[in-house]
Write a structure and sequence with these properties.
- By secondary structure, the protein is of the alpha+beta class.
- The chain has 3 domains: about 110 residues; about 60 residues, Thrombin, subunit H (Beta Barrel), CATH 2.40.10; about 80 residues, Rod shape-determining protein MreC, domain 2 (Thrombin, subunit H, Beta Barrel), CATH 2.40.10.
- It is built from 2 helices and 12 strands.
- Helix 1 crosses helix 2.
């Protein structure tokens, strides 16, 4: 019986739908049109609940399809915005880097120990190994740079020009084992020699004043004029004395962090002929 009632309901609904479609699509005039109008309005009233139910079911489905279409557009817009933000961030980073570089280069021309003309440049190749402590810079003979000229950084002595081409030069670092320079610790003169990771002071006189850890060694200007006086070379890290109290060795760490060294200044200074 339940099956029969369901079939009758579906049949009634189908008949009503057919009547509604027929009535809505017909165009009558006069009295017939008025009669048809009443029937059509009644049919609309009967079908209205079914229409609302159908709309309630299909509306979310329509939203899903519309959302799927708009989702692709939003993804494209988000990708474009991310690209624009990335471009702005790169430009900002480049501007900040350029500003910092300009400040560093500018600071090289105002170092307190500079008293001769200089040429500012950049390190283009760091030290290749611990056995040969040299770097390459972007200055050469076309910039007035040549072998024997001292090279300094913001914190002190970097080394000396070993060789030059038209646009580049090789710099021997102050910590290279072949490098030597006369220094002063206070009023006392010492000969500093590179050790590969720092400097060691030699030719220590028996009556030399004992230096203290942290004391700054500066170029003496006494080694045949190879370097102007007063350039910071490094700080004393250890002092070793013998059993009799005499100085045996003094270790000095370089004033320059060669790992982070980026900008340098070449002093256009040559020892007297």
């Amino acid at each position: 019986m339940a099956i029969a009632r369901g079939s009758n309901q579906r049949l009634t609904l189908l008949i009503l739908l057919l009547i509604s479609i027929t009535v809505v699509t017909l165009d009558y005039h006069g009295a017939v049109a008025r009669g048809i109008g009443h029937i059509r309005n009644a049919a609309v009233d009967v079908l209205s609940p079914f229409q609302r139910a159908t709309s309630a079911v299909l509306h979310p489905i329509g939203d899903v399809f519309a959302g799927a279409v708009h989702y692709g557009q939003l993804e494209t817009q988000n990708a474009q915005l991310r690209a624009q933000i990335g471009t702005l961030e790169r430009r900002s980073a480049q501007q900040n880097f350029s500003l910092a570089a300009s400040k560093q280069i500018e600071s090289l021309s105002h170092l307190p120990f500079l008293n001769v003309p200089t040429v500012a440049g950049e390190v283009i190749s760091p030290a290749a190994s611990n056995f040969e402590q040299t770097i390459q810079i972007n200055l050469g003979t076309s910039n007035g740079v040549g072998p024997g000229m001292p090279v300094v950084g913001p914190s002190g002595l970097v080394g000396t020009i070993l060789s030059s081409s038209g646009s580049q030069s090789i710099v021997e670092l102050a910590i290279d084992a072949r490098f030597g320079v006369g220094v002063l610790l206070g009023p006392t003169y010492f000969q500093a020699q590179g050790t590969g990771n720092g400097l060691s002071l030699h030719q220590i006189q028996s009556k030399s004043k004992v230096p203290f850890v942290g004391q700054v060694a500066v170029t003496s200007g006494q080694d045949n004029g190879a370097y102007p006086p007063g350039i910071p070379v490094g700080r004393v890290t250890s002092v070793k004395k013998s059993a009799t109290g005499q100085l045996e060795s003094i270790k000095v760490s370089s004033s320059v962090n060669f790992t982070l060294l980026q900008y340098i200044s070449v002093m256009q200074w040559l020892p007297p002929a």
